Amino acid sequence: MGYNLHLMDGTKRMENKAQEKGFFNEYLPYIVVGALFALLTYWYFFLATIADLTYVWQYVLQMFQLKFDGQMIPYSELSRLEQGYVSMYGPQYDAIAPEVVRAFEERQHLLPWVFLFEFCLFAGMLWLQGGRKGPKCRKTCEMVEVHSLFQRVVLLGNILIMLYLFLSGFSITFGNITGGGDLGYFLRQTHEIVGLFWIPLWLLVTVIAFKDIKHFKRPSAKWSWFLLKGLYTHGQRINYLAFVAFGFILVFSGFWIWFLDPVWATHAEIIQYKRLILFGHFMGSAVITFFVGETIYSYIVAIRGYLPGLISGKYPKEYLEEFHPEVLDGV
Amino acid sequence: MSNTVDYSRMKFYCDETRCIHCDGCSVACAEAHELPVGIQRRKVVTINEGIQNMEFSLSVACMHCTDAPCEQVCPVDCFYIREDGIVLHDKDKCIGCAYCLYACPFGAPQFPKDGAFGTKGVMDKCTMCAGGPEETNSAKERELYGQNRISEGKVPVCAAMCSTKALLVGDSEEVSNIYRKRVMSAGHGVQSAPYGWDKAYGK
Predict the structure, then answer these.
(1) Which of B75, B102, B119 sits opposite A275 (nearest CB)?
(2) Which residues in chain A show pLDDT less than 70?
(3) Which residues of B touch A185 (CB under 8 A)?
C-alpha cells in the first residue's frame, strides 16, 4: 500500500509539474532529441550513405509482401542475359553493397577521433560538475533495497555484454589499425556468439525496464521484484526507448547475419537481404552508441551513477533523495 | 612477332553455349585443393532449368576482378592483387567478417561454418591455383590455399579438366581472341559481352 501511495505521489507530482510548465517546456527533451535525431537521419541517409535509397525503400516495401530477394522487375520481363545475372548473382548488386561497406571501411580512421571527442566531452562535463557526486551521509548511510538479485544480474549482464559487443564490433571497424590476425579473429567470432546471448538479455531488460507500465496497470506485489522501481524522467525514458528500438534493430539484424549463410544454391535469393540487414546493423550500432553509451557510462562512472548500488542492490537513502527521488518514490 | 605473353591480366571466362554442367571443374577443384565439405570455390549453376531453349549452365568462381570490390572493403587489408592480376588473400590476417561476401558480385567468398555456435571461419576462395602469400609450394601454402599450379607453369585445374573447353583461363587478350573466334564461327552475334565480364573487368 505504501508503495502505491508513494507511486501515486510521484505520478501526481510529475503531472502537476507538467501543468505548471506548459506543453513545450515539459516535452522539450523529446522535441530536442527528436529534432537532433531527424537531423542525424537526414545526414546518414541523404548525405553520408552511398546506398541507392530509392531502391532500399522499394525493397523494404517489397518485404511487406513477403518477397525478400530484392528483385524489383518481375523475372519474366527480364532479358535472357538479365535473367542469368539475377539467377546467379542476385539483383542490383551495387545498390547497397559494396559502396556502404566501403564507405565505412574508408572512414574508419575518423572513429578514434570521434571516441576521443566523446571522452573529452564526458571528462569536461565531469569537471564542470565538480567531479563525481556520492551520497552525503551524516554517520552511516541508511540503505534502501532498490534492485532484486534477478534485476542486478540482468542489468549488470546487459552492461557487460554491451560493452563487449561495442569493443568486439568496433574491432572489425578498426581492422586496419589492428591488422587482423588471431586477436581480431577471436573478437570477431566472439562478437557473434556474445551477440546471440544478448538477444534474450535485451528482451529481459526491455521488459523489466518498462517502468511506464505503471501508468497503465498497477503492478501487483507479486511482480514488483521483476519491474524496476520508480518512474522515468524524460531523459531516462528517451534512453530506454532508444535502447528498445535500436537494440531491436541490432538483435534482429545480428541474428540474421549469423543465421543466414548463403551457399551457391541460395546465394541469389539471400545475398541482397543480407546486404540490407548489414546496412541496418551499421545504422543501429552507430545510433545506439549515442543513447546507450551514455546509459552505460552513467551506471559506471558518471555523476549520477552509483556502481556499488547496482552490484549490491542497495542504495543510500540520502543518495536517492538527492539524485533519484523518482526511484525513492517507487520503493 | 614476340612469343612472350603479357600475363598482366589473368582472367576466367566460361562459355555458356559450351558448358554441359558436368561439374568436372568443381569436383576437380575440390579434389586438387582437398577442400573441406561445404567449401565450393567453383560451382556450376544452371539457369532456367527445364525451360526449352532457355536453359544454360555456367561455371562460376572468383573472377579475379580488375577493380576487386573485396579488396576495397576488407577491414584488415588481407587481399592483394598480384602483378598478373590474380586476386589472393592472406588467411592469417582474415578475421572472417564476411564483408567481402557482401561486396562480391559473384558470391565467390566461402566460409566454413565450423566454429562454436555456428560461427564462420576465415574466408576461402578460388586462388586461380596460385596459392597464397606463404612460401611458394611450401607445406603451409598447400594446407591453407591448396595447389600452386601457376608456379609450376600449369593451367588452373578447373580449366584443364573442362571437357568441352567451355572454361577458359589465361591472359585476357588470349581469352578474348578465343571467344571472338567462337562467335565468328558460330555465324551469329551475341547479345552482350561474355557473362560476368562487365562486372568483373569493366565495360
Answers:
(1) B102
(2) 1-21, 47-50, 97-108, 173, 219-221, 293-305
(3) 94-96, 122
Q: What is the ipTM of this complex?
A: 0.83
Amino acid, single-letter form, for residue A221: A
Q: Which of A82, A92, A93, A106 to mutate to test the interface with B (most CBs of B within 10 A)?
A: A93
pLDDT tens digits, B26-46: 999 999 999 988 889 999 988
CB neighbour list of residue B200: distance below 8 Å, 6 or more residues apart: B11, B63, B64, B65, B66, B105, B106
Distance, CA of A109 to CA of A98 (rounded, Å): 19
In angstroms, the CA A249 to CA A259 distance is 15
> To which H or E segment does residue A241 belong?
helix A234-259
CATH of A2-51+96-330, one of 1.20.210.10, 3.30.1360.70, 1.20.950.20, 3.30.70.2970: 1.20.950.20
pLDDT tens, position by position, B52-110: 877 888 899 999 998 888 988 888 889 999 988 999 999 999 998 888 998 888 889 99
Q: How near does any CA of chain A get to the CA of B5, in Å? A: 32
| Residue A272 near residue A59 (C-beta atoms within 8 A) | yes
Which domains does chain B carry? 10-201 (3.30.70.20)
Is it true that the peptide bond before A98 is cis, omega within 30 degrees of 0? yes
